[in-house]
Amino acid sequence: MLVSMAKMTGRVGVVLVGLWAGLAAATAQETPAPPAAATQDGAAPNADAAAAPQDNVKQIKLTEDQVKRFIAAQTDLAAIASKIQAAGDSPDPALQTELEGIAKKHGFGDFSELDDVAANISIVMAGLDSATGNFVDPVEALKKERDDVQKDSSIPEADKKQLLDELTEAIGTTPNLEYKENIEIVKAHKAEIEKALQ
């Protein structure tokens, strides 16, 4: 239980910190950037909101109620954001208890449910173009970016190789969105999510 909770806490910490950082930068970002960047350097441009190790994300069909409760939980989560970030994959029992309490306070069955909702919101937020508000599947955006880098002769070969390797890795770890209906629910609350995560 402790090990699985540690993994969940580490993942949601990255997701939430990624969302906070990503949404702060989102207004300056026009196209999604590779999600892998957030796990490497801590910064999270618009697409980096999906900063969690995505192969572990349990995709769920979001409800409007879940998204509203996620937004409401942000004040409590922001209050302990530094603890979440500092704990990484090794949260202590006190932090685990605190996270469970926050989740239950906001109507989630447990912290795992809050974690899943956060991760699924982050997948959609990662694909929302800040300029148009349209959803672009992050995997497709990454593939287009990889193609653009490949064709760009102005990038030095060593830099190009590194960029292509990073983009290929990001493509391999970024999930396709399973529940397309999540897009409209998250878009309907985008401004509230951004405000709550500032």
Task: Write up what this structure looks like.
This protein has one domain (2-196). It is 66% helix and 0% strand. The chain has helices spanning 2-26, 36-41, 64-79, 81-87, 93-105, 111-127, 138-151, 157-173, 181-188, 190-196. Helix 1 (2-26) packs across helix 4. With 198 residues, the chain is mainly α. This is DUF4168 domain-containing protein. Residues 1-28 form the signal peptide. Residues 32-55 are annotated as: Disordered. Keywords: Signal.
Task: Name the descriptors.
0% strand, disordered N terminus, mainly alpha, 10 helices, 198 residues, single chain
Instruction: State the assembly state of the protein chains.
Output: single chain
Main beta sheet: strand number and arrangement? none
Mean pLDDT: 76
**Helical segment count:** 10
| Range of strand content | under 5%
Q: Rg to the nearest angstrom? A: 17 Å
Gross morphology is globular
Question: How far is the first residue's CA from the last residue's CA?
Answer: 32 Å
Number of strands: 0
Q: What's the helical proportion of residues?
A: 55-70%
Helix-strand topology string: HHHHHHHHHH
